[in-house]
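As a warm-up, study this chain.
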Amino acid sequence: MKAILSFVVAILFLGSAVQSDPRTAALDSKPGLDKAITLSLRAASLREVLDKVTALTGVKLRPERDIAEDKATIWVKDKPACEVLCAVAHCFNLCWVDSEVGSSSFLRLFMDRDSAADLRRRAYDDYQAIVDQFDKELQANAAVIRSDQDYGPPEDTGGLSRDEYDRLLRRSRAAQWDEYAAATLQYLVLSELQRKDLMAGKHVTVSGSAIAREASERKADLASIDFWIERSLGGYLLRCSIRPFIPTSILLATAVFDDSRYEKTIQAANEKLLKDTALDREVQLPGQKEGTPSSASVRTPPAGNAPGELQVYGRVTDPSQYILPAVPRPGEGSGATPATMSDGLLAIAEAAEVPVVAQYLSEYAGAADLAPGPHAPVKINARISELCRRHQFTVERDGDFLLTKSLLWHRLRSREVPEEKIKRWQRIVTGLPAPTFEVAVQMGSLNWGQVRGIISNSRHWFGIPDPSYLARCEYVLKLYASLTPNQQRALSQGTEIPVSTLKPEQQYMFMQAYEVKEQPTFEHAQDPSWPQTATFSLVDAGLEEQMVLYAAADMRSLGGTPLTVEITADMMPSPPNEMTPEQRRQFNETAERRAEEQISKAARAFAQQIAKLHPDISPGTIGIHVQRMLGLRLRLGDDEQQKILTHAVRVDR
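Now compare it with the structure written out below.
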């Protein structure tokens, strides 16, 4: 009897030893996946990762569409492909399964219901934190309203941040303006369901008998209040509009993401990491990569000139006196390059030969992870711990692999732009003051989360200091991008397009652009026949007052020069005292054409001198651009709005 029991126990023990993870069981014993592979990838989409593994092993691998563009950073050397694919699934909380389409069989990577639920739970935690901040601010404002006392922001703003001062300024408005007071009091009695609708991007309108008595007492003629929430780069804005119609919307409260709640999670993971004896050793990180820009190669500006302010008056100044700033290239750490978590991890993985799989986010730290020049040796676990605190990641062991997970993945993954798009745009617009029109349309046609990603990363990706105009013009760009080539051609020829000829989704874009909101309130759309009164047309708003000359080669910016072209009397006669509108239009067109001729002349000379100064750069890769303003005029009944898009136009050399 004892022998039989021992045999049973042995069988059970053996069974538990070979039991595999059900989420990755489809990889087990798959022919070809035992092949050792080497990968070094930064910001590669999961689709690209699986394509590379397929090419190396011959095993067909496909990601589900909703995760295909999620980005990963991977460094492995001579590891079995099945282990790499397991690590990818564990890092991104995904599953592998055998699939077939027709006669084709393949392994499919997908997000199951539990993983999706986890992302929703983390997003709900964000929602709860935002709602709590709105309540806290508006409860304080309501207390001031109910006290019926005059309230003003403090005269001494010393020690107050801009956000704190703005919060007190809104409190002052709530105490003094009936509209602010009514909206504040009404929001505080919204139901939980209504607040969830707001956070889901919906509008909540309260009217008639549903208006709270306390709110109607503050504004006797109050007919309705429409609430909505707009997402910003750092949090959310609570806005409303009030009927009888008030021309502008009211900003009731702001809320920012509070990520301090992740500190304990990061600390616990780091404590475990610091106890990992396999990582408790020193490595020498690489120094400046050959051929990359460094702070030492940036020219010192001549006396009296600030960076980017070298003036050119009708001629080209010697470019040897010009500063050539080092615009960051993604993935290259330098003194001038803020780095992502992946840049720091890749340096460690390569130096220590530690296999790493990481979730990638295009969020740059304030300081470089890889400074130019020699480095002192660093301990692996201490360096990774520092990176985790800076970028809000955690690192955990998965066999030999280090899995690096972002605690902000649920929020920031929607901002990621496919890397092939970024690289394509970089070849066109890096170093320019604004994207070209074609690139701007492509950017605007992305989803709103990706537009926010472009806004927050444009300085690092393209060297564009202020891309906020893209957010202001997003729906105009979406509307333009949705038009047929014939409609776009008609716009460029000055034709006014009736909105009634557009598809319903395009009419929706028009109203979004007109309302200047992420979600339209359709103030003007109470009559279902509103498209019959709406049109839009394209107008050339001319050159910027200050024309900017830029030279860019590949992904390196050679600089930008505010270019002032002086039009002398011999170039352009003085305008007559009295002109008809048509004469004035012709005169202005001639003046602008003469100015552009002078810009083109200066551009040719500038390009020639740059080519002499930098013989390694082909003159054909130097692009000289000016800034132009293009407007889309939106008409709705008797009202009109004009949206301006500043874009870069290459000067014909």
